Amino acid sequence: MSNAPLKLAVIIGSVREGRFGPVVATWFAEHARRHGSFEVDVIDLAEAQIPLELPADPPALDPDPQRPAGMTDLTRRLTEADAFVIVTPDYNRSVPASLKAAIDWHFTQWDAKAIGFVGYSGASGGLLAIEHLRQIFNELNAHTVRNYVSFPRYYLLFDGEGRLLEPDEPAAAAAAMLDQLHWWASALTAARSLPVA
Ligand SMILES: Cc1cc2nc3c(=O)[nH]c(=O)nc-3n(C[C@H](O)[C@H](O)[C@H](O)COP(=O)(O)O)c2cc1C
């Protein structure tokens, strides 16, 4: 097995003007870099062109469809990643449409890869989106790790500069998730070279 660090893509799932997602993603990416076992790439879905109108054929029949030119960079970075952490709020108790569209436009990019979550929101702290994402990624043959980070009522937890008022517990949760993610990503990266069962 190669000793090169695994590639972790941190995906900012919300794209609306004034969103809080980048603050949470910046916080998490700093912890992921400090963890030391991943090469970290922060992917902002707002920088990609992701139409809601999907290709004519389902991904199982055409896993690599013609995609808009504005999605080329996103697709390349998803393909290169060994593991993902999705940073997501709850939108009406579920996943932002921007994130669901980015997932649905891809297929092999998720296959047999490890996925972790950082949620934030009102009372539900992103957990409702995270539970839906676990179902979605199950269909895509990805493995979602047990541990996660959640920020319910995030607006009470961060100051105006995007710093956590009480950083220790979230830092411990992030480290625990990154440990688990690294174990699974290592195992799955090795397994991806084996013949498919
Ligand atoms: C369309 C929409 C639906 C929302 N639904 C929920 C919800 O179901 N539960 C919740 O706790 N917060 C909900 N919120 C509040 C968001 O979690 C909060 O606005 C958060 O900042 C959204 O993430 P963003 O700023 O990165 O877009 C909703 C916000 C929007 C815009």
Automatic annotation (TrEMBL):
PANTHER family: CHROMATE REDUCTASE (PTHR30543), NAD(P)H-DEPENDENT FMN REDUCTASE LOT6 (PTHR30543:SF21). Residues 7-153 form the NADPH-dependent FMN reductase-like domain. The lineage of its organism: Bacteria, Bacillati, Actinomycetota, Actinomycetes, Mycobacteriales. It comes from the Bacteria. InterPro entries: Flavoprotein-like_sf (IPR029039), FMN_Rdtase-like_dom (IPR005025), NAD(P)H-dep_reductase (IPR050712). This is NAD(P)H-dependent oxidoreductase.
